[in-house]
Amino acid sequence: MSSTGSPKRGGPIGRRASRKRAVEMLYEAAQRDSDAVTLLAGRVGSTDVDPISDYTVSLVEGVTTRREQIDELLAEHAQGWSLDRMPPVDLAVLRVGVYELLWAADVPDPVAIDEAVGIAKELSTDDSPRFVNGVLGRIGTIADRLRAVL
């Protein structure tokens, strides 16, 4: 970190920044109606953009691989909301959050939820953090059971 408290340019990329970047990549891919992994591959190693961390790559690849399972869970637990009614940014945040809850063994469940809520605060509407917290909280209460069957 620099003396101003911001990350140094070119230094290690923290997990929060990696999560945020993954959300941005998933959102962009959805807006372009393209594959997020393909979009990501075009950016990794590029010199004209900020570096992409290994954790961002892991999240984008993981969400893409498990998207059908993730979307089924979201549709089931987002009470009163279909996926196509959700704001696209919220959907990307939720997908990363569910992936971390169920498949990122080194991320405690409360951290996955808190990080998703924090990113929703940064990138989406005033109502989004509460919505993200509610959906991920419902999934989090059954995460152990889900991990056993997925």
UniProtKB/TrEMBL annotation:
Any Pfam family the entry gives: NusB
GO term, biological process aspect, one: transcription antitermination
Keyword list, A-Z: RNA-binding, Transcription, Transcription antitermination, Transcription regulation
Source organism, top-level taxon: Bacteria
GO cellular component: cytosol
Residue ranges of every copy of the NusB/RsmB/TIM44 domain listed in the record: 17-139
Molecular function via GO: RNA binding
InterPro entries registered for this protein in UniProt: NusB-like_sf, NusB_fam, NusB_RsmB_TIM44
Function: Involved in transcription antitermination. Required for transcription of ribosomal RNA (rRNA) genes. Binds specifically to the boxA antiterminator sequence of the ribosomal RNA (rrn) operons.
Family: Belongs to the NusB family.
Name recorded for this polypeptide: Transcription antitermination protein NusB
Lineage, highest ranks first: Bacteria, Bacillati, Actinomycetota, Actinomycetes, Pseudonocardiales
